[in-house]
Amino acid sequence: MTFLNPKSIALVGASTKTFEEVLAEGKYWGAALRDSLLQSHTEDIPLYFITKHESYTDLPETPDLAIVAVPNIIKEVTKIVNKGTDKIIVINTLDAFTERKLYKIVKNKATILGPNCLGVHCDTYSTFFLGRKTTGDIGLVTQSGGIGEALLENVPNLRTVISVGSAQHYRIEDAIQLLREEPNIKRIALYSESYIPEDEDIITLMPKYNKKSVEAVYDHTGLTLEKNNAINNLDDFIKVLNEKVLVCSNSGGWLCLYAGQNPNQNMTLVDTYATGNPLQRAIEMQSGYTRAVVFFNKYEDFKKEELDDSKLLIPHKIIKSSNCETYI
């Protein structure tokens, strides 16, 4: 069992009040999480809502996953571990002393996602307050739940989000590996304030490195921001995630090179070696794509009317074999 496929879920700190009632009181977590789980979970997953008047110990079964958003975090996590639950999402923001104490309690017994996170949005359940169905093929690991929410609202193909918070117990690397094992995830994205992935296929957003951002990251998570070559702007990150590129070439070798140069791009590669004009194929296939790249081998051998790109209506670039200084 992983954080993405629990067979049963318990929410510790559930509210019996409506979201509107608790919002007025400034204590909305218990109601918001309850409502989100009710809206999103698959019907075959039992849900248990533990209010302040109930005990985790008295549950009729041991849930696979516990989601915790309560002030008395140490007491409740101790009950959860003693019950035998080995996956725990901690929504709370904790001080360093309490966080270290928490890790000692779960050592060799359970794995903690968080603290200071928004949990998970996936095919089986969601702790994000959006009421959005899972679609698409992108998986996101994020140290900021707020960034995760913003991307869910702006990237239709974002299927799964894992909010890792401080990522000291369940690490960013662990979440990335989990997404790699998911059959419905074809691309992986990351918002990180502390970890630079070695794999080039991970689309990465990080704060731009400067004195102010280093201070802001440390204040946010207590972590150290490193110098990086990642995307540093949220709008640019969203554009990359939403991009769908059509790449047509009458040279299969060039397609191989292009794919290697752009490992995190959402692309369709079309080899027209046997059928001829790559521009004509791009014109025929352009619907649904955000831009096109067309590569011509022996460009000079084509007739002038065959090179008319006026019907290729999406943004595009045509590259000739005699002038292929770039693959971008």
Structural description of this entry:
- Helix 5 (145-154) links the parallel strand 7 (138-142) and strand 8 (158-163).
- Helix 3 (73-83) packs parallel to helix 4 (96-106).
- The protein is 30% helix and 19% strand.
- The longest helix has 12 residues, at 29-40.
- The radius of gyration is 24 Å and the shape is elongated.
- It has helices at residues 19-25, 29-40, 73-83, 96-106, 145-154, 172-180, 211-221, 234-242, 252-261, 278-285, and strands spanning 9-12, 47-50, 65-68, 87-90, 111-113, 119-121, 138-142, 158-163, 187-191, 202-205, 245-249, 267-271, 291-296, 316-320.
- The strands form three sheets. Strands 2-1-3-4-5 form a five-stranded parallel β-sheet, sandwiched between helices.
- The protein contains ten helices and 14 strands.
- By secondary structure, it is an alpha/beta fold.
What characteristics describe this protein?
alpha/beta; 19% strand; single chain; 328 residues; 5-stranded parallel β-sheet; elongated; 10 helices
- Helix content estimate: 25-40%
Largest sheet: 5 strands, parallel
Number of E strands? 14
Shape assignment: elongated
Strand content: 15-25%
The succession of helices and strands, N to C, reads EHHEEHEHEEEHEHEEHHEHEHEE
Distance between the termini: 41 Å
Strand order of the largest sheet: 2-1-3-4-5
Q: How large is the radius of gyration?
A: 24 Å
Mean pLDDT: 89
Which structural class do you get from the secondary structure elements?
Answer: alpha/beta
The total of helices stands at 10
Low-confidence sequence ranges: none
